[in-house]
From TrEMBL, chain A:
The keyword Oxidoreductase applies. The keyword Oxidoreductase applies. Residues 177-282 form the Acyl-CoA dehydrogenase/oxidase C-terminal domain. Pfam families: Acyl-CoA_dh_1, Acyl-CoA_dh_N. This is Acyl-CoA dehydrogenase. It comes from Streptomyces olivochromogenes.
From TrEMBL, chain B:
GO terms for cellular component: plasma membrane. CDD domains: ACAD_fadE6_17_26 (cd01152). One of its GO terms (molecular function) is flavin adenine dinucleotide binding. Residues 6-123 form the Acyl-CoA dehydrogenase/oxidase N-terminal domain. This is Acyl-CoA dehydrogenase. Signal peptide: none annotated. Pfam families: Acyl-CoA_dh_1, Acyl-CoA_dh_M, Acyl-CoA_dh_N. Belongs to the acyl-CoA dehydrogenase family. Keywords: FAD, Flavoprotein, Oxidoreductase. Residues 233-378 form the Acyl-CoA dehydrogenase/oxidase C-terminal domain.
Length: 309, 384
C-alpha cells in the first residue's frame, strides 16, 4: 500500500496548476464574470492540447492513456481556479464525440438532475434537451437550462463510457464533480487563512482570535477528509466510495465557502470579493447527479447489503 | 496512489490471521470491567501470547527488542486483531505506546535493559502521571515538585486521569525540577515505582459509572535519580519524542470497530422498522461516508508515515478532530435507532454512547486540536 501521490502524479498536478494559473488566474476570472458566460474557445483548445480532455483516452486512440486518479487531480485543479465550462461532459465525450478530445468541440450533457450547463455555448449536447428552458443561474459563470421532467433522459441512461472505463457516466460525473469541489474547498480555506492572517481588528490579525482560528481549522479538516475520500474513490472506482467522496467534497466546498465568507466579514458579502464565486459554483455543482440525497441513500443501502466491509 | 497491499504485506496478514484463528479460542474468559487484578492478568496474558508468537512490540525498533514493522504492517496488525475480536492493548497501553517508546529513544542502555523487556513479555504494567488537577490542556503548567535529596528525588503533588494506576508497577511521571525556569524548561521525566511509600491512589468514577482511571496523590515519594530518563529539566522534550512514534495508526482498530457497529445499527433499524424513515436512513448513510473516509485518511496518514518515517503530530490532529466527533454521532444515531431502549444501561450501545463523550476531551480537547491545526498547519498567529 502506498496511498500517496506518485512523483508523476505530483508533476501532473503541478503542471495543470501552472497552466491554469497562467491562463485563468484571478484577473481572468473577474474578467470572465464581467463579460458574462462566454466560453473561451482558445483556452478550451489549449486545455485540449494539454490533454485535459483526452487524459484517460488510450494512447492508441490518440489520448494520454492515464487513469481516474490523474483525471481527478486535473479536475481538482480546475475546481481550484473555478474554471468555467462543461469540462466534465467534454472529458467524458473524448473518444465518443469527434473533436471533444482535442477541445475543438465543446460538449455538454443533460444531467440526471434535469439541468444542462452551457447549453447555448456548446457544440454538442448529449441526452435529450428538447424544450429546455433557461434559468437565471445563480452562478455567473455557469449558465443553466432546465429540461422538462418528462423528456429528461439523464445521461446516465444514455450510454456507458467507451473503451476507457467500465463505469457509466453518472458515477464518473459525480466523482469528477467531487474533485472540482475538493479544489474549490481548498481554495476557500486558503483564501480565508490569507485574510485572517492579514486583516487586523482590535490591534491584531483576526486569525489570532480562536473563534476565527477554529473556523479555519474546521475548513482544513473537511478538505483533508474529502481529499482522502476523493482520491480513494478515484483508485477503487467503486460507486459507494464515489458516493462517500461526493458527499464529503460537497460538504467541504459549500461549508468551506460559507465559512470563508464569514471570515471575510462585510467584504465577503460584496460582489468584488471572490468568495461568492466559490460558493455559487459549489452550490451549482451540488445539484449534479449523485447529489446528497442520492449518495446518502446509496451509502445507506450499502450498510445493509451485506457486502460492505 | 496505490491501495493494494504488497505480496509481503498480504503474507504478513495471512500468517497473522492464521495465528489469531488458532489462539483466540484458547483465551480465558474476559474478566468483569470492575475486576482490576483480573483485567491486569488477562491483558498481560495476551501480551505474553503476542511475545511468544513474535508480535510483541511490533512497531518498536529492533534494537529495543521490537519487530521494527512498517507502519503498514502495524495497520494490518491492528485491523486484523480488531476484526478477529482479539483483546485490546488494555493495561499494556502506556508501556507499549508511551513509556516504552520514550525509554527506547531516550533511556540509557541500563534503563532500556531494565524496563523494556518486561513490557514486551507482559510482566509489568505502566501508568501515566502527566495531567494534574490544574494542568490539563496546559500540561506544561504542571506543579508536582521534585527536590533532590542525595541520590533520590523527593516528589510531592497530585496527578489525575491515570488509567490502570491501581494495578500498575511503574508510572511515567512528569515533575517540576526547576520552578524558576520557563514552564517547559523545568520539567523532568521519572519512572516511579508504584509500590513506593507515599503514593495514594483514589479511583475516579466516570459518568458511565465505571472506574476507568484514578487520581494519584504523591506525598514525599522517593524516586532514585537513576530513574530519571533524559537530562534534568529536559523532560518536556523527552516526552514529546514519544509523539514521533505516531505513525497514523492510533485509531485503526477503533475505525474498524465503528464501521462494524454502524452496520449493526443499520441492521437493527431494518429489524425494528425505523429504516423506513428516510431521514434516519440518510443519517446512517452519511455516517457510512464519514467512516469510509476516516479509513481512507488513516491509510493516507500511514502511507505518509511509511514514506517519511513518521507523520507530524498535526496530521493526527486533523484525524482526531473528525473521528472523535464522528464516534459521538455514531452512538447518537444508534440511540435514535434504539428509541426508548437507548435509556437501558443493559444495552451495549448505551454504555458506548456514554464513553464516547470522552473522545472530544481526552488526549487534547477538540478546542486545543483546532488551535494546533490553525497554528501549526495553517500558520495563523498565536493569540488568546
Amino acid at each position: 500500500m502506498d496511498f500517496q501521490l506518485t512523483d508523476d502524479q505530483r508533476a501532473l498536478k503541478a503542471g495543470v496548476r501552472e497552466l491554469l494559473a497562467a491562463r485563468f488566474g484571478r484577473e481572468r476570472l473577474r474578467a470572465a464574470v464581467d463579460e458574462g458566460p462566454r466560453l473561451d474557445r482558445a483556452l478550451w483548445r489549449e486545455l485540449g492540447e494539454a490533454g485535459f480532455f483526452a487524459l484517460r483516452l488510450p494512447e492508441a486512440e490518440g489520448g494520454v492513456g492515464l487513469g481516474l486518479p490523474e483525471a481527478v487531480l486535473a479536475f481538482e485543479e480546475a475546481g481550484r481556479v473555478l474554471l468555467p465550462g462543461p469540462l466534465i461532459a467534454t472529458h467524458l465525450a473524448a473518444g465518443v464525440v469527434d473533436g471533444a478530445a482535442t477541445g475543438e468541440t465543446v460538449v455538454t450533457a443533460v444531467d440526471g438532475g434535469g439541468l444542462v450547463e452551457w447549453l447555448a455555448e456548446a457544440d454538442v449536447v448529449r441526452g435529450e434537451a428538447t424544450g429546455a428552458e433557461p434559468l437565471r443561474s445563480v452562478d455567473p459563470l455557469t449558465p443553466l437550462h432546465r429540461v422538462p421532467v418528462s423528456g429528461g433522459a439523464g445521461l446516465a441512461d444514455v450510454r456507458p463510457m467507451g473503451s476507457t472505463g467500465a463505469l457509466p457516466t453518472a458515477p464518473l460525473t459525480s466523482l469528477f464533480t467531487a474533485a472540482e469541489q475538493l479544489g474549490t474547498a481548498a481554495r476557500a480555506c486558503e483564501t480565508a487563512v490569507q485574510h485572517a492572517r492579514t486583516r487586523e481588528q482590535f490591534g491584531q490579525p483576526i486569525g489570532a482570535f480562536q473563534a476565527v482560528k477554529h473556523l479555519c481549522a474546521q475548513m482544513l479538516v473537511r478538505v483533508e477528509l474529502a481529499r482522502a475520500a476523493v482520491y480513494a474513490a478515484a483508485v477503487t472506482a467503486d460507486p459507494v466510495d464515489i458516493a462517500a467522496a461526493r458527499l464529503l467534497a460537497d460538504e467541504a466546498a459549500v461549508r468551506g465557502a460559507r465559512d470563508c465568507l464569514q471570515v471575510h466579514g462585510g467584504m465577503g458579502f460584496t460582489w468584488e470579493s471572490d468568495v461568492h464565486l466559490c460558493l455559487k459554483r459549489a452550490w451549482t455543482r451540488t445539484q449534479r447527479t449523485g447529489s446528497a440525497t442520492e449518495s446518502e441513500e446509496l451509502l445507506a443501502a450499502d450498510l445493509v447489503s451485506g457486502v460492505g466491509r | 496512489m496505490d491501495l493494494t497491499y504488497t505480496p509481503e504485506e498480504e503474507e504478513f496478514r495471512a500468517r497473522l490471521r492464521e495465528w489469531l484463528a488458532e489462539v483466540l479460542p484458547s483465551l480465558p474468559p474476559k474478566p468483569s470491567p470492575d475486576d482490576w487484578p483480573g483485567r491486569r492478568a488477562y491483558d498481560l496474558g495476551w501480551q505474553r501470547m503476542l511475545y511468544d508468537a513474535g508480535y510483541a512490540g511490533l512497531h518498536w525498533p529492533v534494537d529495543a527488542g521490537g519487530r521494527g514493522a512498517t507502519p503498514t504492517q502495524h495497520l494490518i496488525y491492528l485491523e486484523e486483531t480488531e476484526k478477529a475480536g482479539a483483546p485490546y492493548v488494555g493495561a499494556n497501553f502506556v508501556g507499549l505506546l508511551h513509556a516504552g517508546p520514550t525509554i527506547a529513544s531516550e533511556g540509557t542502555p541500563a534503563q532500556r535493559a531494565r524496563w523494556l523487556p518486561p513490557v514486551l513479555r507482559g510482566e509489568e504494567v505502566w501508568c501515566q502521571g502527566f495531567s494534574e488537577p490544574d494542568a490539563g490542556s496546559d500540561l506544561a503548567a504542571l506543579r508536582t515538585r521534585a527536590w533532590r535529596d542525595g541520590d533520590d528525588y523527593v516528589v510531592s503533588g497530585s496527578k489525575i486521569w491515570t488509567s490502570h494506576a491501581e494495578v500498575a508497577d511503574w508510572c511515567e511521571l512528569l515533575v517540576r525540577t526547576d520552578p524558576a525556569a520557563p514552564k517547559h524548561r523545568g520539567i523532568s521525566w521519572l519512572a516511579m515505582p508504584m509500590d513506593a511509600p507515599g503514593i495514594t491512589v483514589r479511583p475516579l468514577r466516570t459518568l458511565a459509572g465505571s472506574t476507568e482511571f484514578a487520581e494519584v496523590f504523591l506525598d514525599e515519594v522517593r524516586v532514585p535519580v537513576t530513574h530519571r530518563v533524559g537530562a534534568e529539566n529536559d523532560g518536556w522534550r523527552v516526552t514529546m519524542v514519544t509523539l514521533s512514534y505516531e505513525r497514523g495508526t492510533a485509531f485503526v482498530g477503533e475505525v474498524v470497530a465503528c464501521r462494524r457497529v454502524l452496520g449493526e445499527v443499520a441492521r437493527e433499524a431494518r429489524k425494528n422498522g425505523r429504516w423506513d424513515d428516510p431521514a434516519l436512513r440518510r443519517r446512517l448513510g452519511g455516517l457510512n461516508a464519514e467512516f469510509r473516509a476516516l479509513w481512507r485518511l488513516t491509510q493516507w496518514n500511514v502511507s505518509e508515515a511509511q514514506r517519511n518515517g513518521g507523520v507530524p503530530g498535526v496530521g493526527g490532529s486533523v484525524f482526531k478532530l473528525r473521528y472523535s466527533h464522528a464516534r459521538q454521532e455514531l452512538y447518537d444515531a444508534a440511540a435514535e435507532v434504539l428509541g426508548p431502549e437507548a435509556l437501558d444501561l443493559g444495552r451495549e450501545w448505551t454504555l458506548d454512547r456514554l464513553s464516547s463523550l470522552s473522545y472530544t476531551i481526552a488526549a487534547g480537547t477538540s478546542q486545543i486540536q483546532h488551535n494546533i491545526v490553525a497554528e501549526r498547519i495553517l500558520g495563523l498567529p498565536k493569540g488568546r
